[in-house]
Amino acid sequence: MESINWKVEGMTCSNCALSVTKYLEKEGMQNVKVNPIDGDVHFETVHFDKEKQASLTKGISSLGYAVVHEKAAKPAEGQQPPMNKYLRYMLICLPFTLVLMLHMIPGLHCDWLMNPWVQLALSLPVYAIGMYHFGRSAWKSLRSGVPNMNVLIALGATAAFVYSLVGIFLEQPGDYLFFETAAAIITLVFLGNYLEDLSIHSTQRELNKLVRSQKVMANMIAFDDQHQELVFPIENTQLKSGDLILIKNGEQVPADAKILWGEASVNESIITGESEPILKKQKDMLIGGSLLLEGTVKAQVTAGADQSVLANIINLVKKAQGDKPPVQRMADRISAIFVPVVLVIALLTFGLNYIFLSGSSEHALRDSLMRSIAVLVIACPCAMGLATPAAIAVGLGRAARKGILFRNAKSLEAFKDIKQVVFDKTGTVTTGSFTIQQFEALGVSADEFKRIVVSLEKYSNHPIAQAISREWKNNNLIRWASIEEVKGKGMKAMSKDGDQYWAGSYEIANSHTREDHHNVYILRNGELIGWIDVRDEIRPEAKEVMDYLHSKGIHTVLLSGDRQAKAAVIASQLGIREVIAEKSPEQKLAIIEERNAAIPTAMVGDGINDAPALAKASIGISLSDASQVAMQTADIVLMNHGLTQLPEALGLGKHTLLTIKQNLFWAFAYNVVAIPVAAFGFLTPAIGALVMGLSDVVLAVNSVRLFVKRVK
C-alpha cells in the first residue's frame, strides 16, 4: 500500500470533508482521512501514478476544492501571507451593505436610498461576490450529492434578492424591497467565516510551532582539494543522511544526527516536553528541532528533514487529527442529511406561516418568506462537523508539544473507560540501564566466560543483553555456525566445533540449579558454566505515577518475564497492587487479551518484546526508547524517556473527549433552539446570519480552552 498525503484548499465544513471522502472512496482509495480544519487529506492505494494523480486532482477540483502542494500553500520566507479570502470578500461587501442599511438608523432620512434602482445597484456587487463564492460552492456540492452549508446561504440570499427584484417589476417596492437583507446575509456570513477561520486556526497553534521548528539553517562541513575543512550555511531541508554538520552554542539542531566530536547540553522539550537539559557526548544521538544550550559539536546527519523524528511526529499528529472517534459518528450521519432536512423545514416554515398569517396580516407573503430565509441562514451544519475536529486538533496539538504522541484519535475516547493499567517491568517502570552486579564462572576462566557471554548476547536486542555486551566488550569473539533468539528463553548458538551454547533465563537452567534468582544463566552442551546478576534502577517518577493512578481508582498490574521474587520487590517499592511474573511474550499476549475482555485495559511497555500485547490492549502505550517499533504498534508513544507524562496523557484523553461532548451538545442545542426561533419570526435573516457564524466561534473557543485547562 502506498500512503499519500495531500493538502486540499476550499473546505469550510464537515460536509466538504465528507464530499472529498466519498469521492476518494468511490475511486478505490482506502483508509481515507480528511481534516476540514487544515485541509490535510490522507489516503492509501495500491497503485498511484501520474495519471491517477491527475485524475483524482481533477475530480476533487470538480467538487469545488483545489489540491495544492503543501509548500505552495505557504508564503515564501520574508513574504507577507495573503489576506484571508473571507476578510477580503467581507471588506469589499461591507461599504455597499452599510449604505444599504442607512435607512434603518432612527431619525436618518435618505429619500434617495429608498429608490429601488439605487438599492439594486448597491446590492448587485455584493450579490455577485456572494454567488461567486457561495453559489459556485453550493452548485458543486449539489452535483457531488453532498449539499453543504453554502446551499443554505445561497438560497437565503437569492430568495431575498429575487423577491426584491420581483417587487421592482411589479412596481410595488414598498412591500418587496429587501435588497439590504440579501447583502447583509452575504456580508455577515463572510464575517462569520473569517472569525471561524481565526478561531479554528488557533486550534492548530501547538502543531504549527512544531512545523516552524522544522525549517532552520545548518552549518554544513565540507573539504576542499587540500583537505581543509570548509563550513557554509545551507537550509536543513537540503541535508541528507551522511552529511557532516557543525552545531554551535545556542543553535537549533537542524536534523537528526550522531555526535562525532564534542559534547553539549541539549534542550529536547520540542520533542519530549521535558525542559531539563540533557548532556550529549560523542556517539549520542541528537533530535532535529532540539536546542544546543551550551557547547559545540560536529555531527553526522542520520535522517533527512522529511524522515526526521520531528517530521514523523508531525505526520503522525496530522493523520491522527483526520481520525474520527466513535462519538463523532452520529454527528456525521446527521451532518450528511442536515442540509436537505433544513430545506424541508424552510419550505414548511414558509407554507405554514403563509397559511396562518394570510388571514391576519396583509404582509403574509413577505413575512413568511423572511422567516423561511432566517431558517436557512441560521441553521449551521458546520457546528456539528467541527465539534470533534476542533477539540481533537487542540488535544493532539497540546499532547505533541508535551511529548505525547497519539497515533489515532480513537485512543482519546478509549481513555474514558480505562480501569486497569498493566506495566511491563524492564525499561518501563525501571530505567533499563543495567550494570553487572556480580557473576560466577563454573568450570571456565573468567575471561573465557566473558568471551562466551558477549559472543552470545551481542546478537540480542534485550536491554540486559545489550548492557552486558557494552560492559564486557570483547574483540576476540566466537564465530558461530548458527545462532538464534528463542522468545521467552534467550540466545541459542552452535559453534563450528559442534558445541551448543545457551544464554537465557532460569527456564533453560532449572534442571541444573535451584538458584532461581539470577538474571542470566550460561549453558554449554547442557551443563551450567556460570550465571550473571545485573542491577536495574527504578524510574524516579514511577512511584508518583502509580500513586496518581491509584488516586483515580485505577488498578495497577506488573507483568514481567522476570522471576516472581524480583518482580514482587519492584512492585512492593512502587505500590503496584498485582504482580504477574515469569511470562513469555506469548503468555503476556494471552493475559492482556483475557484482562481486556473483562475490563478496558491499558498496557505500558517498551514496544519491543511487548509489541503483540500492546496491540491487543484497549490502549497500548509505549516509551520512546524503541520509537520506530512503538510508533507502529502502540496507540500512544511517550517521547520523554519515561512515565512522567502518563498522567497528562490520561487526563488529555478524558478532557478532550469531554470537550468533544460539550461541543456536540452546543451544536445540537444551537440548531434545535435556533431553527424554531427563526421559524416563528423572532429573528431577522441578517441577525440569523451573524449568529450562525458566531456559533462556530463558540466551539473553537471552547476547544482552545484545552491549551490551558488543567487535565491531571
Structural account:
Helix content is about 50%, strand content about 20%. It is elongated and about 115 Å long. The longest helix has about 35 residues. With about 700 residues, the protein is α+β, with helices and mostly antiparallel strands. The protein has 24 helices and 26 strands.
Biggest β-sheet strands, sense, barrel: 7 strands, mixed
The pLDDT mean sits at 82
Low-pLDDT runs? none
Coarse structural class: alpha+beta
Helix content: 40-55%
Q: Helical region count?
A: 24
How big a fraction of the residues is strand?
15-25%
| Number of distinct beta strands | 26
Any idea what the shape is?
elongated
- Radius of gyration equals 33 Å
Q: CA-to-CA gap between the ends? A: 39 Å
Order the strands across the largest sheet as they lie in space.
14-26-25-24-15-22-23
